[in-house]
Design a protein that fits this description.
By secondary structure, the protein is an alpha+beta fold. 20% of the residues lie in helices and 29% in strands. It has nine helices and 26 strands. The radius of gyration is 25 Å and the shape is globular. InterPro entries: MeTrfase_TrmA_CS, NA-bd_OB-fold, SAM-dependent_MTases_sf, TRAM_dom, U5_MeTrfase_fam.
Length: 536
Amino acid sequence: MASISNLSHTLPLRIRKFGPSYFSLSTLSCSISQEDVHPNNPNSYFPKRGQTLELVCESLAFKGKGLCKVTQTGFVVLCDRALPGEHFIGRVTRKKGNYAEVTKVKTITPPRDIVDAPCVYAPYCGGCKTQNLSYDAQLRAKEEQVRDLLIHVAKFSRDDLESRGILKPIVPCDIQFHYRNKMEFSFGPLRWFPKESLHERRVDAGSENYALGLHAPGFFDKILNVDNCLLQSHPANKVLAAIQECWRDPQLGFSPYDVHSHLGFLKHLMLRTGRDSATGLPEVMVNFVTSSYKPELLKFLADKVSAFPEVVSVINNVNSSVGNTSVGEEEYTLYGKSCITETLRGLTFQISANSFFQTNTYQAEVLYKLIEDCAGVRGDGSEIVLDLFCGTGTIGLTLARSVRHVYGYEVVPQAITDARLNAKINGIENATFVQGDLNKIDENFGKNFPKPDIVISDPNRPGMHMKLIKFLLNLRAPRIVYVSCNPATCARDLDYLCHGVAERNIEGCYKLVSLHPVDMFPHTPHIECVCLLELH
């Protein structure tokens, strides 16, 4: 099979409502028959749904999918769970205007850098898609994805990135398993039983069909039953195993929630792990999300899990809506405390059932140290910090000890309540937290605080709204530290801040000094980035 030269292809990707952006697709190869291509138009090739293709994967795309290109035409094919160097047969399941998606049917030659996945659920679970790829190879792939986005979306040249040293080496995570302090599992009446081929899925009927676990890939209503997860803490796994032992007992009267009929009681199980600030010992919160409030029914499970010494809190969130979210409109404490604690950068934080907190506490220490270094706080107590998307105040409070004042803004009311409480717990009085939607700011927004010396912006996956970008360009703070959990929207926003938006007559006024990729979640496609921008 002939391979194509090292080409680059860009695929339109609508990242936010105000316009498309692009991400780079690395080279892969694919063999097709000559009759599939019109002799007068070699770009006319388009695979048919259900057609099988023989593919070779050479790199990973953003979000962890394998990238393939048809040898003769460069037509792009994406395959979930294809790894670099893997030679395989794929079946076309979806087709778009300029690319197709395939599901792997058979591996002919295994991928490069392959390792044995320690988790028995790894071939089927949607969480750890790259667990069977060596960790060094995972890091290389993530770093290359960020580089491609900076070139094709943020419009920096490769020479510029290298000569100015903008893109730093990715920061690895020393703890690659049992690093998550929060896991959410779903109850359901449709247990998913995987076969050897991932494209073949079935659900068996019967009383043993109830499941507690993670959603099967591609299904919102079918659950892969799991007894433990190698990403969550050991104490949380003990709790999960204890619940799995008993909840299906028909004498207990539990029924899993059915997303089709909207009947059933148990919706989700959320397990959070913290550390006691005095002893350093683990604290586990068990949160049962149910469709109604029936404390007498939950008492058995509450008593069962509270027998573990690490369990200090059992919560019941009641979500009576037909939706299947894990946040309830009512919350009840069934056992112990309503919050657990965690220590980060020398500060103590209280974490409630629905609080946002960095999911990998160990790597959050590394991340926040990097943010502090990029912020370049002088330490003389003279600087003003504007903390956008502040959440529960973790970043702003770690900086507050060295600056004059921190002003934090966040849309979630409970997060602001938690931020104020965390400031009080740590004796920090120079931090103000305000609830507000940063996607809906107006011309009066900047009048609520003095001009900042440093802006911290840590948006969620959609990135920053154009209104906020325009505000920051007009504000002209000397330094911006942009913390992103989505490199694609991060690259788009960096382009706007540095190069402007020509169609809107907006000029950029910042230069990108550095970008540090951080691996917060090993074995997953997620990448965190810490970017330092300086006014020029």
